[in-house]
Amino acid sequence: MEDSGDSHMKIINGEAGYVLEDVPHLTDYIPDLTTYPNPLQVNPAYSTVKQYFVDMDDTVSQKVVVHKDGPRGLHFRRAGPRQNVYFRPDDVHACIVTCGGLCPGLNTVIREIVCGLYHMYGVRNVLGIDGGYRGFYSKNTIPLTPKFVNDIHKRGGTILGTSRGGHDTSKIVDSIQDRGINQVYIIGGDGTQKGAAVIYEEIRRRGLKVAVAGIPKTIDNDIPVIDRSFGFDTAVEEAQRAINAAHVEAESTENGIGVVKLMGRYCGFISMYATLASRDVDCCLIPESPFYLEGKGGLFEFIKRRLKENGHMVIVIAEGAGQDLVSESLQSLDQQDASGNRLLQDVGLWISQRIKAHFAKENKMNITLKYIDPTYMIRAIPSNASDNVFCTLLAHSAVHGAMAGFTGFTVGSVNGRHSYIPFNRITEKQNKVVITDRMWARLLSSTDQPSFLRPKVVNKQEKPSIQLLNDNLKDTKQ
Ligand SMILES: Nc1ncnc2c1ncn2[C@@H]1O[C@H](COP(=O)(O)OP(=O)(O)O)[C@@H](O)[C@H]1O
Ligand SMILES: O=P(O)(O)OC[C@H]1O[C@](O)(COP(=O)(O)O)[C@@H](O)[C@@H]1O
Ligand SMILES: [Mg+2]
């Protein structure tokens, strides 16, 4: 942990292997800041709540499955309102920015930050930054009030607009300083949180009383530590419509094959959960589980068998799956988007063409294949009811944290409890489907597809007893 390169990490060790990875506080670099009683104490809606304020010593354990004699392990500070705050409501000048790809629920988070600040803390000055990070220095701001954001949660996308690239730290912090902003709410994925971390570092270097709070957005579910991000549930639900269509098309013709491509650049969570939810999927292909087409145990052999058994089949493929195979047969362009993310080849189109070509060559089996690509449909929609509630809790946790003077943190639910997590924990690695975990085994058992792992590869995987202690255990909670 000490090797992370972050000189400001706050690690507190306790008894029996208890470790708290705390988040920074404004008082870490600005001593003697004045505190004020939390206005929630006199808020009619909240003042009656028993134990509404979070105890300063409350922390959330990263692992809920522990061995009798094992260490207590890593903990994060529990999110929620504190007795005292470090800002007077009239002095708060907050801003909100959304960055990266779209995700259902962005508008709900924006709405709930504005309404949370306004209704819980009496804050009146909230600005929207137009068009992602570059909006800080190249665009006008948008004043946000509860009235303005009242029904935005019913719309997909983000009312603030978003972008990739354009992260210029000093220009962004100059803009924050020039505008007198003292609370920055940054909603975005892994790239955005890396950007938020450097903004926080620069603000701290300049000694500014500015709280920086991240709200993790990832439709792919690729952010580690947190249980899930908002919008994931909605995306999986929307994916069902594409899978249903593929299934209807496939079962209506002899040897019908439906191929559905879903988002998931580096990880296959959407595909895995959409497959498990649907029960109509015969094969799910994800980036974490390499596959091959030809020969014994390959995809073509499986398709042939399944068509003989059932007369039709549905394949779900994550956009990042099989990219090595695609590059072998198509000229690899190796392009990147403005944020430096690799641009992927269309694996759905590629696999559809390969399947068609294979069965045309076999000449014994006439197949009908329909390829459905609902990529942007699953993320350009408003969030569902459950995600809406989740967005509200995340937004309120961020507001409570910033008002309480915490900074340099991302909010997230860890084992169901909302927590403040240091940026480096969120950005140091990507969350992936662990194909030796039980969730992937459940999928293999439900689709009865080949694992595409040759025996010697399986033997190389970690033994289950070791995995119990592995950080990845949380990825697919059993
Ligand atoms: N390592 C980084 N340092 C600073 N800013 C970054 C970094 N990676 C990405 N960003 C910025 O974060 C924003 C969003 O990143 P992107 O990867 O497109 O989406 P996401 O945050 O959803 O992963 C972009 O404006 C990009 O410039
Ligand atoms: O076409 P765009 O906007 O670059 O988005 C495509 C990408 O967005 C994603 O949903 C991930 O985006 P983020 O990194 O912004 O979360 C990927 O699954 C997909 O490859
Ligand atoms: Mg990303």
TrEMBL record:
UniProt-annotated binding residues for ATP: 101, 164-165, 189-192
Annotated coiled-coil segments of the chain: none
Binding site for Mg(2+): 190
One GO term describing the cellular component: cytoplasm
Active site: 220
Enzymatic reactions: beta-D-fructose 6-phosphate + ATP = beta-D-fructose 1,6-bisphosphate + ADP + H(+)
Residue intervals of the Phosphofructokinase domain: 95-400
Enzyme Commission number: 2.7.1.11
Gene Ontology molecular functions: 6-phosphofructokinase activity; ATP binding; metal ion binding
UniProt binding sites for substrate: 218-220, 263-265, 319, 376-379
Pathway connected to this protein: Carbohydrate degradation; glycolysis; D-glyceraldehyde 3-phosphate and glycerone phosphate from D-glucose: step 3/4
Family per similarity comment: Belongs to the phosphofructokinase type A (PFKA) family. PPi-dependent PFK group II subfamily. Atypical ATP-dependent clade 'X' sub-subfamily.
Function: Catalyzes the phosphorylation of D-fructose 6-phosphate to fructose 1,6-bisphosphate by ATP, the first committing step of glycolysis.
HAMAP family in the cross-refs: Phosphofructokinase_II_X
Subunit note: Homotetramer.
Protein's name in the database: ATP-dependent 6-phosphofructokinase
Organism: Jatropha curcas
